[in-house]
Amino acid sequence: MLLTSTLILAAENGGAGGIDLFPDTSELVMGLVAFLLLAAFMTKFAVPKLMETLEARAEVVRSSQEQAQAMLQEAEAAKRSYDAEIGDAKGEANRIIEEARATAEQLKAEVLQRAEAEAAQIVERAQADIAGERERVVQDLRAQVGSISVELAARIVERELDQATHEGLVDEYIQRLSSQN
Questions:
Q1: Of these four, 117, 141, 154, 169, which has the most CB atoms within 10 Å of its CB?
Q2: Three-state secondary structure readout of 109-168
Q3: pTM (2 decimals)?
């Protein structure tokens, strides 16, 4: 805006004593030639180098993005693999636990069966021992009853049996049996 007002002011003065803003034609031509040479030089040498640098940078960015994408895919594949391995490990652990439970149940059943068999054998031996002891006691009682009967018969023969004597002998016999047991 300032430039426009300066140009308008210079045009009103008619250039007399004022500021001349436009260069001479020769300067303008030389400036134009220098500019064109500079533009050609830039187009020939600087712009291709700049484009190469920009393309290389774009390639580096593309390559980095591709590497990042590949690494992301590898990480996801590794995560899926680890998740699958963890699932397999959990399944294996559950299988081992179930096998251990089954083995424990089987061992428990075997121990219980052996204990029951031993208890049955102990009961059987005890019953055999009791039967043997009972038989021995019965034999002892028979022997004692036999000897007592013989002794009682001998006493009876020695004495004459009347009712009172008979009762006395029976009472005496019962007392003797009671005192022996």
A1: 169
A2: HHHHHHHHHHHHHHHHHHHHHHHHHHHHHHHHHHHHHHHHHHHHHHHHHHCCCCHHHHHH
A3: 0.38
